[in-house]
Write a structure and sequence with these properties.
Elements lengths: L9 E2 L2 H13 L12 E3 L34 H9 L4 H8 L5 E3 L5 E9 L1 E4 L3 E2 L2 E2 L6 E5 L5 E5 L2 E6 L3 E4 L4 E3 L3 E3 L2 E6 L5 E8 H12 L6 H17 L2
């Protein structure tokens, strides 16, 4: 499926971004049950924060707090607890995302994830635009004043291209400083003299990476399924 550029790729915090990089390549497919492949919450309804408020009690107390996330949407440990008590993924999602419904989407969809701004070096690619590359060679992309992109290997010019530039290979691509990614890299000037690097990846590979970053594969299948649906919905409704 050809890559179609979108103006606002998904943005992840560095912690999750690094984990997604590894998970997208290494997570076993069995960790995301085939039953929820292509399943998402119905588009157009944004998740809202679910805040449990304890009833006042003369003898009770409640604790207010949170983890290191954004505090909106689904709690991974809450999902674990509900799954261990027999809840299915549909019931878990209905609890955390009130007012939504389960829908479906093609599993061949491509999503884009913003990986970095600034310097851009990669390896593992065999093609840049219509130019053939060597997978074992490391390349650097540099933005030119003209708005074009220059590709270099060992500080020597290989070619220059109009933006955006898409590079691909027969296997995972490596982005220097971040790790391996499936799919392709798309480069364009970032407007500040650097280069914006975007990963264009199949939606199911993206979901596998996110699930492995957010939950251990040993957790109950219904918890993993709920995370997969939430991640897929986020990817397709962000931007």
């Amino acid at each position: 499926m050809p890559f179609k550029a979108v103006p606002r790729p998904i943005r992840h915090p560095p912690r999750l971004l690094a984990a997604v990089a590894a998970g997208a390549v290494t997570l076993a497919a069995a960790a995301v049950a085939p039953a929820v492949a292509g399943t998402m919450l119905r588009p157009g309804v944004r998740p809202s924060a679910h805040v449990a408020v304890a009833e006042p009690s003369a003898s009770g107390f409640y604790i207010r707090g949170g983890g290191d996330g954004h505090g909106i949407g689904m709690s991974q440990y809450g999902t674990l607890g509900y799954a261990e008590h027999g809840w299915g993924y549909r019931r878990i999602l209905a609890h955390y995302y009130e007012g939504t419904a389960i829908g479906s989407v093609s599993t061949s969809r491509i999503v884009t994830v913003l990986l970095a701004d600034g310097a851009a070096s990669f390896s593992g690619a065999t093609k840049a635009g219509d130019h053939t590359l060597k997978s074992g060679t490391s390349y650097t992309v540099r933005a030119l004043a003209s708005g074009r992109l220059e590709l270099l290997a060992s500080a020597k010019k290989v070619a220059d291209f109009s933006a955006p530039l898409t590079v691909s290979g027969s296997g995972p691509l490596t982005l220097a400083g971040l790790g391996e990614y499936r799919g392709s890299f798309v480069f364009r000037p970032d407007g500040a003299g650097g280069v914006e690097t975007v990963n264009a990846v199949d939606i199911e590979d993206y979901v596998r990476g996110v699930v492995s970053a957010e939950m251990p594969a040993s957790w109950p299948a219904q918890a993993l399924d709920a995370q997969a649906v939430a991640a897929r919905t986020y990817a397709l409704t962000s931007g």
